[in-house]
Design goal:
The structure is a single chain. With about 180 residues, this protein is α+β, with helices and mostly antiparallel strands. It has six helices and nine strands, in the order E-H-E-H-E-E-H-E-H-E-H-E-E-H-E. Helices cover about 30% and strands about 25% of the residues. The longest helix is centred in the first third of the chain and has 12 residues. It starts with 6 loop residues before the first strand and ends with a strand.
């Protein structure tokens, strides 16, 4: 995998619409970040290499829904932590969950498979997605994620995501122990 050196702030070159809107919102909210560009990160193994260069762990982001599709949950958890559906479902008081579809990702968060991130909540003004963080993510100083496109990754202060970004989007945060 090719990974660029760490840069501060938004790229100068042209990016996809959703990525450009992400950078514009971060600028509007005065949230600073460091960035690396890289080949498409298709797996958490790719993200581990990116995390090493960026100096922040990239979260595993899962969009989950019960069979009746009555709710959607964006779970952000450490990339190396195994996910157990039964345990997570019990903690949030939901029936057994499964992964949402690619169509759900596009409709609810405006992103493609592999590009889900907390920053995609900017595309959910109706708050159809509930945000859930594993406690390990919530307690980190740095938060690593994609800017709604899996060819770049950002390092932001976790406090900025919680106190500025989420306040702006109006999404509540639930913390669990996965």
């Amino acid at each position: 995998m090719t990974i660029s050196p760490v840069c501060h702030g938004a790229p100068a070159d042209e990016r996809t619409d959703v990525e450009q809107r992400t950078y514009a919102l971060l600028a509007e909210l005065n949230i600073s970040f460091d960035r690396v560009d890289h080949d498409a990160a298709a797996a958490m193994e790719d993200c581990a290499a990116i995390s090493d260069v960026l100096g922040a762990p990239i979260c595993k982001n899962l969009l989950l829904t019960p069979r009746n599709r009555s709710a959607f949950y964006l779970l952000c958890m450490p990339g190396d932590k195994p996910f157990t559906t039964k345990d997570f479902s019990k903690q949030i008081g939901s029936s057994r969950l499964s992964f949402a579809t690619a169509e759900d990702l596009e409709e609810l968060l405006g992103v493609e498979v592999g590009s889900a991130s907390v920053l995609a909540l900017m595309n959910d003004p109706d708050h159809r997605v509930t945000l859930v963080w594993d406690r390990a993510v919530a307690e980190q100083e740095w938060f690593g994620c994609h800017p709604c496109r899996n060819t770049s990754s950002l390092r932001l202060k976790t406090a900025d995501v919680r106190e500025i970004f989420l306040r702006h989007t109006g999404h509540e945060l639930t913390i669990v122990d996965c």
